[in-house]
Design the sequence.
């Protein structure tokens, strides 16, 4: 009976680790840096939005580690919730969500963003921009976009349209490959199994 319990707990751990590895491979993490030093000083706004086309499959954007000279609480519209520095969780239901955060220009801002999405054939867009009361700052519109394409092959489901400029840059955070994660998981299970054998 004791061996069966050990086997069952080992099997549960294996399933959990395998599931974790699969999810890690499916959700890349991106880091966005925004340097407003060249834009002068004073108040402005940072906008983050997540917009799904009509009929787009369910998707979420998780924004975390929002840093910089933030001015007050963010104004949230649509399917988005959270507070600075995050996480903010955006959904694409009902058109999506929009976050407008007051900032003070002159310094650096940054955030991390990752996504989840269900299979489908219609996309969703995540974008970010800077503006003041009269016009966009740093670009004539969005500083960058990430297009979610749930119909694309694995590893190609996020199309990046975020050219590095003097104001904004985007970096994909390297993740361990699924094979590497599986190897670590297997080594952990073998070590755990050997420890259990020694106890018996």
Sequence:
């Amino acid at each position: 009976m004791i061996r069966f319990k050990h086997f069952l707990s080992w099997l549960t751990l294996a399933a959990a680790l395998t599931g974790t590895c699969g999810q890690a491979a499916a959700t890349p993490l991106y880091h966005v840096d925004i340097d407003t030093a060249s834009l002068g000083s004073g108040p402005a706004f940072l906008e983050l939005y997540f917009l799904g086309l009509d009929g787009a499959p369910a998707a979420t954007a998780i924004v975390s580690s929002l840093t910089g000279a933030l001015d007050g609480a963010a104004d949230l519209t649509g399917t988005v919730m959270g507070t600075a520095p995050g996480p903010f969780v955006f959904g694409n239901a009902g058109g999506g969500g929009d976050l407008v955060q007051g900032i003070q220009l002159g310094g650096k801002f940054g955030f991390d963003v990752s996504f989840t999405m269900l299979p489908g054939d219609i996309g969703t867009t995540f974008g970010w921009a800077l503006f003041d009361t009269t016009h966009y700052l740093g670009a004539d519109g969005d500083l960058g976009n990430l297009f979610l394409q749930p119909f694309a092959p694995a590893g190609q489901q996020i199309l990046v349209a975020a050219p590095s400029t003097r104001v904004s840059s985007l970096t994909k955070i390297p993740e361990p490959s699924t094979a590497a994660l599986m190897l670590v998981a297997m080594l952990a299970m073998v070590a755990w199994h050997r420890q259990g054998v020694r106890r018996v």
Observations:
- The helical segments are 2-26, 178-199.
